[in-house]
Amino acid sequence: MGSGVHTKKEISKLKQELLKAHKGIETLVRIKSDFVSIISHELRTPLTSIKESVSLVLDGVAGPLNENQKEFLSISKNNIDRLTKIITDILDFSKLESGRVIMHKRKADINGLIKELYSAVKPGIERKNLGFEIDLSEKMTAAWFDPERISQALNNLVSNAVKFNKEKGKIKISSGMERLDGREFVKVMVEDTGIGISKDEMRGLFKHFNPLDSGLTRVSSGVGLGLAISKHIIALHGGDIWVESEKEIGSRFIFTLPVYKKDDEFNFLLDEAIERAKQNDMSLALIVFGIRKPHERNEKMLAQAEDILQSIVRGPEDKVVRYKKGDFIAIIAGTGKSGAMKIIDRFRDKAAVPLNFGLAFYPEEKDKSKLAEKAEKDLKREKNSI
Fold first, then answer.
1. Last residue of a domain, which of 234, 258, 282?
2. 35-55: pLDDT as tens digits
3. Upper half-sphere CA count for residue 368 (Cβ side, 13 Å)
4. Which of residues 97, 114, 136 is at a domain's end?
């Protein structure tokens, strides 16, 4: 052992120990996440009841109120909302950290999302007499993202820009395109003229429980999870987020998202399906269809086959997608071998298209690339023809 040379037995033992340790960590993360979920639920339920009661009293259901009573009850209602938001943030962060959040990505327009955001932050902007500007590029490409989650991430950034801005300051949201490492991304920037962030503060900025402080008084009313949540959301989309800032001058938060490409859609959908299958402890079938003889590729034939396949899938989460420049059509279905064969039989009954098919299954094959590779290899078998 001391010589640095390990026998096969020793290597096997080390692998087993590492596997055991990894499973132990996964168990601890799951226990922590479950605990947070239970506690959050137990806190949120009575808070909802309290808020409803306070709202009814404010509406005069229990009798008339004087101005002092209305003021105190309004303060209580605002603090209930604040506490509910904190609990929601803690629950969200716990789910994101443990990988228990499924992103419902689709082809979407980031400019449209930015326009919708203004109404959500308008009250805070007007209250602080802030200037607000939107500068959206007309040359934007659609991106592949979960609109609800990206809206959450963007809202966190804009809310911070409002919260940490100066009286009569300015906020600007802009969009554009960026090319990084040979890939195209959409880029969103949120700029403010607020308190700024020092280099020391930047180091832990996207870590959890990290509320920002101004030099004189703490102006954050949260628990410092907004930026950590935004970072997790952007990372789960294959994007990046960073900040550029100068103390007392202002800050610019920037994030990127991969642009939508038809060839990428297959990988995105397969990632989602594998994650869903993993979380629900279920099987997943990848069925790949292709022309028997590649040199006879016929777009009209493939389009016809795609339409038929779209009409025969029945599961709410089942997807039909073209990939590899449209040469292959894949069905990603939450089913096992018998269910996959039923899909193929339904296609065979309807189609007069000379296609071959290939099959691969999760969890028999856990790696995404190997799953697709196995299905494509299976497609070449002579007996797998329609």
1. 258
2. 666 776 677 788 888 889 888
3. 13
4. 97
